[in-house]
Write a structure and sequence with these properties.
CATH architecture of the largest domain: 2-Layer Sandwich
Organism: Azorhizobium caulinodans (strain ATCC 43989 / DSM 5975 / JCM 20966 / LMG 6465 / NBRC 14845 / NCIMB 13405 / ORS 571)
Strand content: 25-35%
Radius of gyration: 24 Å
CATH class of the largest domain: Alpha Beta
CATH superfamily of the largest domain: PAS domain
Pfam families: FAD_binding_6, NAD_binding_1, PAS
GO molecular function: metal ion binding; nitric oxide dioxygenase NAD(P)H activity
Distance between the termini: 63 Å
Shape: globular
EC number: 1.14.12.17
Catalytic activity: 2 nitric oxide + NADH + 2 O2 = 2 nitrate + NAD(+) + H(+); 2 nitric oxide + NADPH + 2 O2 = 2 nitrate + NADP(+) + H(+)
């Protein structure tokens, strides 16, 4: 299959004078690849959340970040897992702090195995979940559980910058024992001239609650009556269900999407499902698979013939791009799924198939992969995301990638195999809705 490999390797070296990008997604995420950081401190915030202070192993200062951004860590255990963790402190010129809840393999390893003096590989910072540059609008920070971590960093930054506008901190946790950074948050809010807080305890008894403390969970009704829906910027962080309810509810209440900001490290369609797939199937113009070009080299191997057949198939999309995200290969399957002909797609940015609300997150992950040369989605894991057709319709897609590397081992491009799973997505969503209705009916019986 050497000829096919060489052809794919050359794809990432091509440049097209007609190529345009529909947005500026330059290398704002990483200035370089991995950098060694040492654990300078670790201490518990609650029984389930531990903070780790990370300092550059070379003795220098960490890159300046913005409150709300996150780091990408590569674990030093045999799994070499790569995970994102929010920086839970404002810039201080000395260290980064991450505050990790014990859940999942990577976070459990950090809790159980990572000690002061140990070294981690870290990339970043990255992310656009950051405060506005000026206090033109009120801020409402709404979090649940360990979702408080970026909010703590934002409060620290607001105090450091002398934030004068209204700032409302709203947090939901199980009880006082599970409330991370409680005293620190109270101290920070006391330093803000227009700062206020409301804390919700989902499992605490009503008796004994203090001022601005509530039993139960934060609700949309509370946000409607206690926050300025028509004017505020809302920053949300917490579990997927919490984010889904808050983000959708705020939008349905009239809050413009541009004023709803959230941090979530899973597929974005888990939060905004309604934007991922249309309720009515979009008519798709059938694409006729292009027959492979006549093979004149009788010595072509079976592997090369199979590779040629796969690229010429209309079953699944095969899309290749260079390290800047400019499309260099577009097969018949891509034309069938997305509606663009090869002449229309090649030379364009991948933005043509990414819905606008999800582009920033896409390019963040893309540039991390280019810089580090690693991706979890090249080892069998599928990434489920919304896609954008030429006619403007939304679809649900799953894909995996293969990194293309040059002779020096640097990423020169990527090639993806993409499948349209819109029908399955709709069936799953309908099933979840039906299960929820049955559970609600059973609870009322």
């Amino acid at each position: 299959m050497q000829n096919t490999r060489e052809a794919l390797g050359r794809l990432s070296e091509r440049r097209f004078a007609s190529g345009r990008r529909s947005g500026d997604h330059g290398m704002s995420i990483l200035s370089s690849g991995w950098r060694a950081f040492t654990v300078a401190e670790r201490h518990p915030e609650t029984a389930q959340i531990t903070s780790f202070h990370l300092v550059p192993a070379d003795g220098g200062a960490p890159p300046v970040h913005k409150a709300g951004q996150h780091l990408t860590l590569r674990l030093s255990d045999p799994s070499r897992l790569i995970r994102n963790y929010t920086i839970s402190t404002a810039p201080n010129g000395h260290h980064w702090r991450i505050s990790v809840k014990r859940e999942g393999a990577a976070s459990t390893w950090l809790h159980d195995a990572l000690r002061v003096g140990d070294t981690l590989e870290v990339a970043g910072p990255g992310g656009d979940f950051v405060l506005p540059s000026s206090a033109e609008r009120p801020l409402v920070l709404v979090s649940a559980g360990v979702g408080v971590t970026p909010m703590v960093a934002m409060l620290e930054e607001a105090v450091a910058q002398g934030w004068s506008g209204p700032l409302h901190f709203i947090h939901c946790t199980r009880d006082a024992a599970h409330q991370a950074f409680a005293e620190h948050v109270a101290d920070l809010l006391a330093k803000l001239p227009a700062g206020r807080s409301d804390i919700f305890y989902s499992r605490a008894p009503q008796a004994g609650l203090g001022a601005n403390q509530h039993g139960g969970r934060v609700t949309l009704d509370f946000l409607r009556t206690q926050t300025p829906l028509g004017d505020a910027d809302y920053f949300l962080c917490g579990p997927a269900d919490f984010l889904r309810d808050m983000a959708r509810g705020l939008h349905e209440a009239g809050v413009d999407r541009a004023r709803i900001h959230y941090e979530f490290f899973g597929p974005p369609e888990e939060i905004l499902e309604e934007a991922a797939s249309p309720t009515t199937p979009i008519p798709v113009r059938p694409a006729v698979p292009r027959a492979p070009q006549p093979v004149t080299d009788e010595t072509m191997s079976l592997e090369d013939q199979l590779g040629r057949a796969l690229l010429g198939s209309a079953a699944d999309a095969v899309v290749a791009c260079d390290r800047d995200g400019i499309i260099t290969l577009w097969n018949p399957g891509a034309e069938r799924i997305f509606g663009f002909t090869p002449e229309e797609a090649v030379g364009q940015s991948l933005d043509i198939i990414i819905p606008e609300p999800f582009r920033a997150r896409h390019w963040e992950g893309y540039h991390v992969t280019v810089a580090t040369g690693e991706s979890r989605y090249g080892a069998g894991d599928l990434l489920a995301v919304p896609g954008l057709r030429k006619d403007g319709g939304r679809i649900s897609i799953e894909f995996t990638i293969v990194l293309l590397k040059d002779g020096a081992g640097q990423v020169s491009g990527m090639i993806s195999s993409i499948r349209d799973v819109s029908r399955r997505f709709e069936e799953t969503k309908a099933l979840k809705k039906r299960v929820a209705e049955l559970e609600k009916a059973a609870g009322a019986a």
